[in-house]
Amino acid sequence: RLSCIRNNVWLASCGVLSSGLAVLSSFGLMLFCGVPFVVTVANAPFLILGVGVDDMFIMIASWEQSSRKKEKSSVESLLAETYAEAALSVTITTLTDVLAFFIGTWTAFPSVRSFCLYTGTAFVFCYVYTMTFFGAVLVLNHKREQGNRHWLTCMRVDVGRDQAENSCLYNACCIGSCSRQPSQPEGEHPMSTFFKKYYGPFVTNKWIKLLMVLLYGAYLGGSVYGCTQIREGIDLRNLANDDSYVIPYYDDDDKYFSTYGPRVMVVITESVDYWNESVRLGIESCVQNLE
């Protein structure tokens, strides 16, 4: 927002900080428990940041809707209304993510298992920090706005009749507009207005609804066809570093030996007397029979 009072820069920054705290907490706990850190775990912070910022947007939107409905309500009731609106969706999305990654710990690949452990634990911490730390930040930001304090300096900003007497530089830095007219209360967010007045009526039109059903049918048919084309398997190159010796090994193996089929190995699990000539002849005869 242009308004220096209604601006939520610090609120957004604390939402990103909440995701960062979740990453630090999960990494610290897993390292303390002795879970090995592999290179694939380095991708986890980006996933946590995406989910954490999404939860932040849901919390802020619910807070603003609650504050718009109950302008003179107490902070406790506003926060309770916000959690009633946002906590359910945040909980469901976090629960599905945590289950998905913890189920991934059953894999036989140690690198994938470590990645799922780190990421699933980070989702749990992200949920905890969103419900506690970020909720407190919402309250502090609300008190700052109620006190007409600047978003950067937290100094009280005089708005009202005296705005016309201030200089243009003062109004631009402290209020957010060079206009010398008294500031008006900020209305509904433009994005909310777009979805309410334009997108909603457009989607609920009967012809548009029919088109949506047809498009979804085509999408569903394409998805079913795509499921029939999926091949099972995993490329082991994706589980190693780019500079690992494993990459050229698998490249050469596919290039020179893929036409020969799978390699067959014979393992003798018993303890035999290899010094005995008759035993050695028996082993060689077995190998010849297998060939």
From TrEMBL:
<feature type="transmembrane region" description="Helical">
    <location>
        <begin position="9"/>
        <end position="38"/>
    </location>
</feature>
<feature type="transmembrane region" description="Helical">
    <location>
        <begin position="115"/>
        <end position="140"/>
    </location>
</feature>
<dbReference type="GO" id="GO:0016020">
    <property type="term" value="C:membrane"/>
</dbReference>
<keyword id="KW-0325">Glycoprotein</keyword>
<dbReference type="InterPro" id="IPR003392">
    <property type="entry name" value="PTHD_SSD"/>
</dbReference>
<comment type="similarity">
    <text>Belongs to the patched family.</text>
</comment>
<protein>
    <submittedName>
        <fullName>PTHD3 protein</fullName>
    </submittedName>
</protein>
<dbReference type="InterPro" id="IPR051697">
    <property type="entry name" value="Patched_domain-protein"/>
</dbReference>
<feature type="transmembrane region" description="Helical">
    <location>
        <begin position="44"/>
        <end position="63"/>
    </location>
</feature>
<keyword id="KW-1133">Transmembrane helix</keyword>
<keyword id="KW-0472">Membrane</keyword>
<dbReference type="Pfam" id="PF02460">
    <property type="entry name" value="Patched"/>
</dbReference>
<feature type="transmembrane region" description="Helical">
    <location>
        <begin position="207"/>
        <end position="226"/>
    </location>
</feature>
<keyword id="KW-0812">Transmembrane</keyword>
<feature type="domain" description="SSD">
    <location>
        <begin position="1"/>
        <end position="140"/>
    </location>
</feature>
<dbReference type="InterPro" id="IPR000731">
    <property type="entry name" value="SSD"/>
</dbReference>
<feature type="transmembrane region" description="Helical">
    <location>
        <begin position="83"/>
        <end position="109"/>
    </location>
</feature>
